[in-house]
Design goal:
- The structure is a single chain.
- By secondary structure, this protein is of the alpha/beta class.
- The chain folds into five domains: 10-173, Rossmann fold (3-Layer(aba) Sandwich); 184-311, Rossmann fold; 318-352 and 384-463 and 481-493, P-loop containing nucleotide triphosphate hydrolases (Rossmann fold, 3-Layer(aba) Sandwich), CATH 3.40.50; 500-573, Helicase, Ruva Protein, domain 3 (Orthogonal Bundle); 576-642, Arc Repressor Mutant, subunit A (Orthogonal Bundle), CATH 1.10.10.
- It has 24 helices and 27 strands.
- β8 (184-188), α7 (192-204) and β9 (208-212) form a beta-alpha-beta unit.
- α1 (19-30) crosses α6 (129-140) and α19 packs across α21.
Length: 658
């Protein structure tokens, strides 16, 4: 066991809106530091204000900053960017503590200046490793805890129910003004005396109190009229508190719930808060002095979530939904469908051309779903070799095959209680599709080389750039798997069909690319905007991003001009039709009757390769096929060429002998 660090009190600035995780982090830090003072910001906008106060000298400089990515109103990525610009925060170690399992989030946060990336584990003991990580980080940064700072964290609102076992820690929350309308609190308890006592306390605090004797009655009351906070016992007849909270979570109801518990162990109480996504816990019997500040914070948390949802809907109407941008009618329809399907547990099949943003749509569905706190795992089926596909999906045990030196969980198992995104599902080998279907039907997975089956709770989203009808007709996609995935279908329009979105997408991409490349580009020159509007964008938004990234790097600042674009930009649209093509036999021909479809396909693929200077990724994007399909076609062409050469050699030898 690690010894505690003896030094000045550790001042921590924590941006986290989940009280259960706040308590876990406090436990982790006090396991390594004898005295810890934590200022908690439960809202991204308040965090930005706190940074402003740090820069103006009105707030003490913390020793370390712990930052969650998913905060109300302002995202963690924006806060990281602000920390990078803050003079007062230079040299202060920053740790991103998040539930996200996305490699993209990891890379983005490191690029924005985060010192460490700590994924929230599900187990108590694993969470305690956060204290070791902070201690090591402070040691690397030169003993930041030993710096003298005569100021202390400002006295604001104290945590309501602090376990008596922790003596040298303080958790403080930044206050927010409460709304004038009285909040509604639902008390759920089968003990009539305790239920009435709680109702009296709630009413004496100025709230509207409702009562229910068990989980079923609570669901009936919630169906009739929503509330701001739920105070519930766990052990009840008919439907207990565990089932009630699980049912609300499955429905996408995020009403803060305060759990009444008789647990003497802090670990058991934390498990209830963490596993059931409860807001906080409170020991029985309920005391007014403890319940009052707890209800105040829970009500504030509910209203912040409501404001964030309202802002998200407003942004979607103005053309923004997560990483997606679009004001056109086709994209507004897509946004509406995403918001409808996200709260459910239904599988979604996303179709659209390469580069239209299918993975970003999947990520948006995940972020708006009740599984947002769980992992989002994406796998490109076209990029994984067939020999590794089974191990990648299902995992493997040690010794399952040559090179399997240890046990590894597959993508399905890693997505437990989260979302699995299967990109290019039609490129998955058919035998693997059959195994995947069985896992989806049974919700159980067996690792390669393993004997036991593992239960998983996974929502599956899939995508393809192929025509669904074509994939089914050509037996690239099993019909039974298609029906299992196609509970809800989303079709993404290509960029050429929503050119009204080019300008807002460009503006959003330029902002992101400025941050990524440390540039100060202001926008597009009107001539460049005209070129963009006239171009057909066969590679869709991905091609637009690539063109813009090159232009931003070339320009560095000011407006993007024609000379900043790639030299060949737009020339592909000026090719004459019919185009002279070369077949495998090197003879020129036009698109005219008399040639087989195979000859036309081969000639056009070869022409596109010439046009892209043999860039196969770009060629696949233009042709609208996966990279694996392109390689397969090229291998077929090479085999056919070899047969022709062999036949020619045989004919030549026969003629010579004759």
């Amino acid at each position: 066991m690690q010894a505690k660090i003896t030094s000045k009190p550790l001042h921590v600035l924590l941006a986290e809106d989940n009280p259960g995780d706040v308590l876990l982090m406090r436990e982790a830090l006090t396991s390594r530091f004898p005295e810890v003072e934590i200022a908690v910001q439960q809202d991204g906008e308040l965090m930005m204000h706190w940074i402003d106060e740090l820069d103006s000298g009105d707030a003490p400089r913390p020793h370390v900053i712990l930052l969650d990515l998913n905060l109300p109103r302002v995202s963690g990525e924006e806060i990281l960017w602000r920390l990078r610009q803050s003079p007062a925060c230079q040299g202060v170690p920053t740790v991103v503590v998040t539930s996200s399992n996305s490699p993209r989030d990891h890379k983005t946060t490191v690029r924005l200046g985060a010192d460490r990336y700590f994924r929230k584990p599900s187990g108590f003991d694993e969470f305690m490793k956060l204290g070791d990580l902070v201690a090591a980080l402070l040691a690397i940064s030169g003993g930041a805890v030993k710096r003298e700072d005569t100021r202390t964290l400002p006295k604001v609102e104290r945590a309501a129910s602090r376990p008596s076992g922790v003596k040298h820690s303080r958790v403080e929350y930044i206050s927010m003004p409460s709304a004038s309308a009285p909040a509604r609190v639902l008390v759920v308890d089968d003990d009539q005396r305790e239920r009435l006592d709680l109702v009296k306390i709630v009413a004496s605090l100025g709230y509207v109190a409702e009562a229910a004797a068990d989980g079923e009655e609570a669901l009936e009351k919630l169906g009739a009229k929503p509330v701001d906070v739920i105070v519930t016992d766990l052990m009840m007849p008919r439907m207990d508190g565990f089932t009630l909270l699980k049912t609300l979570l499955e429905r996408g109801d995020h009403t803060p719930a305060v759990v009444l518990t008789g647990f003497a162990s802090i670990r058991e109480a934390l498990a209830v808060v963490h596993d059931l996504r409860a807001y906080w816990f409170m020991e029985k019997p309920a005391q007014r002095a403890v319940l009052a500040p707890l209800l105040e914070r829970a009500i504030r948390h509910k209203r912040i979530m409501a404001e964030a949802e309202q802002l998200r809907r407003q942004l979607s109407r103005e053309g923004f939904l997560g990483d997606l941008v679009g004001t056109s009618e086709p994209m507004q329809q897509v946004f509406s469908l995403i918001q409808q399907v996200a709260p459910s547990s239904a599988s979604v099949l996303i179709s659209g051309e390469s580069g239209t943003g299918k993975e970003r749509v999947a990520a948006a569905i995940h972020r708006l779903s009740p599984r947002a706190a769980g992992p989002f795992v994406a796998i490109n089926c076209a990029a994984v070799p067939e020999t590794l596909m089974e191990s990648e999906l299902f995992g493997h045990e040690k010794g399952a095959f040559t090179g399997a030196v240890g046990r590894q969980a597959g993508c399905i198992e890693q997505s437990d209680h989260g979302t699995l995104f299967l990109d290019e599902i039609a490129e998955m080998p058919l035998p693997m599709q059959a195994k995947l279907l069985r896992v989806l039907e049974d919700s159980r997975v067996r690792r390669l080389g393993g004997q036991a089956e593992i239960s998983v709770d996974v929502r599956v989203l899939a995508a393809t750039n192929r025509s669904i009808e074509e994939a089914l007709e050509k037996k690239r996609l099993r019909e039974d798997l298609y029906y299992r995935l196609n509970v809800f279908n989303l079709v993404l329009p290509p960029l050429r069909h929503r050119k009204d979105d080019i300008l807002p997408i460009t503006e959003a991409l330029i902002r992101a690319l400025n941050t990524r490349n440390d540039c100060r580009v202001t926008g597009l020159h009107p001539e460049v905007l005209g070129l963009f509007m006239d171009y057909s964008w066969p590679g869709n938004v991905r091609e637009l991003r690539n063109v813009l990234e090159r232009a931003v790097i070339m320009a560095r600042e000011g407006s993007l001009l024609r000379r900043h674009l790639p030299p060949a930009f737009g020339l592909s649209q000026e090719l004459p039709v019919p185009m002279p093509l070369k077949s495998a036999g090197a003879a020129s021909f036009n698109f005219e009757p008399g040639r087989t479809l195979h000859e036309v396909e081969e000639a056009y693929i070869r022409l596109t390769l010439d046009h892209t200077n043999n860039n196969r990724i770009r060629t696949a994007e233009i042709l609208g096929i996966s990279l694996r399909t392109l390689y397969k076609r090229l291998a077929e062409f090479a085999a056919a060429d070899a047969k022709i050469r062999a036949a020619a050699q045989v004919a030549s030898s026969t003629g010579t002998l004759g």
